[in-house]
Amino acid sequence: MRPFTKHTGLAAPLDLANVDTDMIIPKQFLKSIKRTGFGKNLFDELRYQDEGQPDQECTGRPLRDEFVLNQARYAGASVLLARHNFGCGSSREHAPWALDDYGFRSIIAPSFADIFFNNCFKNGLLPIVLQAEEVDQLFAEVTAKEGSEITVDLAAQTVTSPSGAEFTFSVDDFRKHCLLNGLDDIGLTLQEESHIRRYEEKRMNEAPWLFMSRGE
Amino acid sequence: MSAKTLYDKLWDSHLVQQRDDGSALIYIDLQLLHEVTSPQAFEGLRLAGRQPWRVSGSLATPDHNVPTTKKERIDGVDGIEDPVSKIQVTTLDDNCNEFGITEFNMKDIRQGIVHVVGPEQGATLPGMTVVCGDSHTSTHGAFGALAHGIGTSEVEHVLATQCLVQKKNRNMLVRVDGELSPWVSAKDVVLAIIGAIGTAGGTGYAIEFGGTGIQSLSMEGRMTVCNMAIEAGARVGLIAVDDTTLEYVKGRPYAPKGEQWNMAVEAWRDLVSDADAQFDEVVVLKAEDIKPQVTWGTSPEMVIAIDEPIPRPEDQKDAVTKEGYARAWKYMGLEGKTTLADVILDRVFIGSCTNSRIEDLRIAAQVVKGRKVASSLKQAIVVPGSGLVKAQAEKEGLHEVFEAAGLEWREPGCSMCLAMNADKLGNGEHCASTSNRNFEGRQGFGGRTHLVSPAMAAAAAIAGHFVDVNELVKH
Fold first, then answer.
1. Are strands B15-18 and B24-27 parallel, antiparallel or unpaired?
2. ipTM reported for the complex, 2 dp
């Protein structure tokens, strides 16, 4: 996994609560068996006027001009500002894959849905929860001035607004460690193989029915 | 020892290792796999040169992409017309063969929606931890199992280690006291709960559903309630084990037998919250207050009882809510309408991991029996949750009841719940759907979904618009 340490980038404000994962990446794109290539279909129904198809070339499709990512001033944005309950709905990891593939490195919102939040960390994408007032301030600053950049520092656990205001955020130690170092957590878990084996032995005595072969 | 909730007990019994940093390694008893969220996980295993930790800990079946017409199903995977869907289903078959994982493929009568198949086979058992790359895995919590959806990276993690790195959730109790009114079902109960606490109300919690209004439900009903815990923001929904649970599980193909059954039952009897257990949050609803529910907007929390007026954006105080309501009104095309009876329906869908079990089909059949689907409808389809549900329904003659009334009887799969196969809504079409999500575009580009119970969907199919099923069955 690509590590995340400190990132400064153009911020785009998506002023909508309860953005669900169907909005982030509609289902027709989930038929892919790859992890990459979802960026062009990120927010497909919010971004384009027509219905997108898998493997379709997107450059000529009619855009919804009012959508934030279609505005020239937000081209190349890498920090997404969002509202309450971002990423609710389905567990599809295609949602963080699409955000990452588009070029986002961090998402800042007052709250996230659990599964989406968790999935982000597996992909080098940092979701940050700030107080609602702090998110409001970031929205206001970013909207007021074109080219506004936000700095996210994972080691220091701070977000710096375009005007220089600094907000702190919390993050689980384990997730922080993995993200800072770009660690594969399967490898880490396999270091605890003996614990897993010991647990299984104990459980096989207590509850042998949990270990039956599936047969045919 | 201090009193424990059911969630605490399940957590403690699966704790492999508590780490100093607050995270924990949790053992996973069962992983269910389907074609959409597993290919990249298997690919990851291959790239890292890893093997599954324990193949008996997994069970697979294709569901999201599979077509539901007889024509496309007769030749199994070879008959799928959409080439992209076909690749995904074939990939699941290939991966299961390569790694030795048991799969119910498209030609197997046991194939169906993972969340219908797991319990039906007794693969899902009380006291287990169950995961799947699908948010509706919360369904299995109906058995007093700790079950939740995960992303593809975690699917790979479980395949490789049979464990997950987790942080414990907080405990919430949602109690439904009293007795449900006639024709009010589990679906109405859970929609009313989501209406009460909101789609983020359960975020960070494991929700245990309790009270007489829950205890009186069948296992099918309990699965419907837990299925939609995620729609209240909670990854985990739970219901305590009782005689209803044990009766359902007994004799299922993968359920323990003989002496092991007795041993299991003794262990499972403890799968209830202790009487003095403390919950971080308690929500209480009165069963008598719950009427048949219908969603009007684009989030499951945008829900009202059938006799209520549609809430208007201008009446909302909070600015974000007002804007959300205005957006939903526009998307759903509600201008000029005051109640949901004013909405003319285009399609009706009875199915999905929420409501495609035999009991759901029996109720829907009871409503449509001897009646005819409204001529204004373009389509009404019934999609059983598994091959075995389909076979049971046909044994009972339910398919004949549906077909006589003008509903289509289909092959099992997720179907129009998320429209990854050919079953979808057209732009602007309204659908009465027994599924779980009414998000924008969920059932098709521009499609307008209204979530309801099987009885209410069946009543809507007959009337051509929403109607209280109690009124319909009087005539």
1. antiparallel
2. 0.96
